[in-house]
Amino acid sequence: MKTVVIVTASLVLASTLPAAARSKVDATVIVRTYDYANLGVDELGNARIEAAQIFSSAGISVKWIDCLVPGRTAGEPCTDPLLPGRDLMLRLVDRIPDTGVAAKRTVALGESMVDRDERSGVLMTVDLYPVRAIASRASTGMAVLLGRAIAHEIGHLLLGSAEHGRLGLMRALWSNDELRGLKPANWGFSRREAAQMRQTLSGRSRPAD
User: Fold this and answer.
1) Of 81, 104, 125, 127, which is least packed with CB atoms within 10 Å of its CB?
2) Domains and CATH numbers, the chain
3) Is 65 in contact with 78 (CB distance < 8 Å)?
4) What distance in Å separates the CA atoms of residue 7 and residue 167, rounded to the nearest whole number?
5) How far apart, in whole angstroms, are the C-alpha atoms of residue 34 and residue 68?
6) How is the chain classified by DSSP, letter by letter?
7) Which has the closest alpha carbon to 130: 152, 104, 154, 151?
8) Rounded Cα–Cα distance for residues 106 and 7 (Å)
């Protein structure tokens, strides 16, 4: 998922999802978090709230598990097998880019490993360095941007696709004006995306494209 440059979205999530989906949570995704960036408790907590609210509007709840990483004592071992289609792994890193990458106008906030043949995946990575830089440049909250980036990558894994949508959270490019709230933008999932993710989490087969 890349951010900054142009893309306009004029829809809001409330208009794309039926009332039943907005008020009822009928699926759960479990996200095992490996925080190699040593993010502050408040920042991580607020980012999770943002991501959870996005999924709640799609009829999906998020359960977060803090997993043990080298050099830290907090967290669970997270050695239980992953349940396909429900358990995901999130790595939070803080990588300083080289000069050439830092100068680019479009920057990737995260990445997801999706098997195109199986249309599934479990591992995603979000980089705190560009998240902080872009949040500062766009005068938006870092935790809000981080939560949206995490939700975007979870979306890739649950949808089983590296493709991006034209509108909504799953669009490829997020502009500074959208992040500032100066341009209308939909930060949620479409009705089709929400239904597809709920089917994935319920163990049913994915609908055909």
Assistant:
1) 81
2) 2-202 (3.40.390)
3) yes
4) 8
5) 7
6) -EESS-------HHHHS-HHHHH---EEEEEEEEETT---HHHHHHHHHHHHHHHHTTTEEEEEEEB--TT---SB---SPPPTTTEEEEEEE--PPPHHHHT-SSEE-EEEEEETTTTEEEEEEEEHHHHHHHHHHTT--HHHHHHHHHHHHHHHHHHT----BSSSTTBS---HHHHHTSS----S--HHHHHHHHHHHHTPPPPP-
7) 104
8) 12
Tokens of 13: 């999530």
In contact, 3 and 133? CB cutoff 8 Å: no
pLDDT at 135: 95
Q: Which pTM was predicted?
A: 0.83
Instruction: Report the alpha-carbon distance of residue 193 to residue 191 in Å, rounded.
Output: 6
Running along the chain, 209 residues long, what does each successive block of 10 average in pLDDT?
Answer: 32 35 70 96 97 97 96 90 92 83 70 91 96 94 97 97 95 94 93 95 58
Residue type, 144: V
CB 126 within 8 A of CB 110: yes
| pLDDT score recorded for residue 24 | 58
**What is the token pair recorded at 53?**
């609210």
